[in-house]
Amino acid sequence: MTAAAPAELVPPRAGWRSLLWIAPLTLAWMLLIYWRPIIPASGFQTTAHQLIVHGLIAVGLWLGLEKAGLTAKQRRTTWLAVMIPYALWFAIAWSAAINGAFLTDASPLPILPLAIFLPVIVGAPLLLASKRVGQALDATPASWLVALQVYRVFGGWALAAWLHGALPAAFALPAGIGDVLTGLFAAPAAVAVATGAARGRRAAMIWNIFGLADFAVAIAMGMVTSPGPLQLIVPNAPSIGVGTYPGVLTPAFVVPSSILLHALSLRQLRRRRPAEAPKPR
Question: How many CB atoms lie within 10 A of CB 191?
């Protein structure tokens, strides 16, 4: 298990100071996509940030496997066993979204709910039970998986879409605000857990739970505002559940992949022991 950075080297205020640059950049991005709605409508932002995240996960997993003391063959096998399905998953979700497979009238099967829940139901037990993935998690800083989800600020596209009348408020407000807050506080939570102190570990666990609760609310509101047997609200604007590209990529891929990241982060934090406080001299 890697040693945590001494608390005195990572002052708690450093985490809050990170908001001084993350918050203005997030606001600037939201103003940009409100001014130029063609940007989110093109699918560029979702594809771009997920490809970046994919690359960071690939590098982080490899570094973690190297630190875990595995043989070269074990490292390659484990890395490929994770990254190949992950890449195929994104490619299939993106292709299905482009070709209209998630549209409500495209199939009698509940394709979008399956895309949300099936990867989590299958992937979470496999990843959490994997001994080698566990070794990689134990060997890497707990702050990595937390900081990675700063991309959640891009969920602010839902708020911009609502302002343009392209999404209903019942879905866009809780989902968009929750995503932006999760992304904004990813950096302070990552800095807090990097101290190795018990309160930092606690803060990161609370952040993970908040991020999962955001998804629970977003999924629930998406279901009750979208055409289907669970619809309770008929909004004036089409909701996320109608399955149109590129918005459908969020529930079809970003949501389940982010849930898996939260699950791995919680597993890592649960096993990580808080750093011992220095003894007074």
Answer: 25
Has residue 66 got a pLDDT over 60?
yes
Sign, CA torsion 153/157/160/162 = negative
Dihedral angle sign, alpha carbons of residues 243, 85, 211, 177:
negative
Q: Enter the pTM of the model.
A: 0.91
Q: Which residue has the tokens 């482009």?
A: 98
E strand map for 106-252 = none
CA dihedral for 173, 178, 179, 184, sign (positive or negative): positive
pLDDT per position as a tens digit, 35-44: 999 999 898 8
CA distance 120 to 259: 7
**How would DSSP label each residue in 139-164?**
HS-THHHHHHGGGGGGGGHHHHHHHT
Report the alpha-carbon distance of residue 263 to residue 252 in Å, rounded: 18
Q: Is 203 exposed, middle or buried (0-12, 13-18, 19+ CB in 10 A)?
A: buried
Burial level of 172, CB count in 10 A (0-12/13-18/19+)?
buried
| Distance, CA of 158 to CA of 250 (rounded, Å) | 10
Distances (CA, A) of 251 to 117, 137, 246, 280: 10, 26, 10, 51
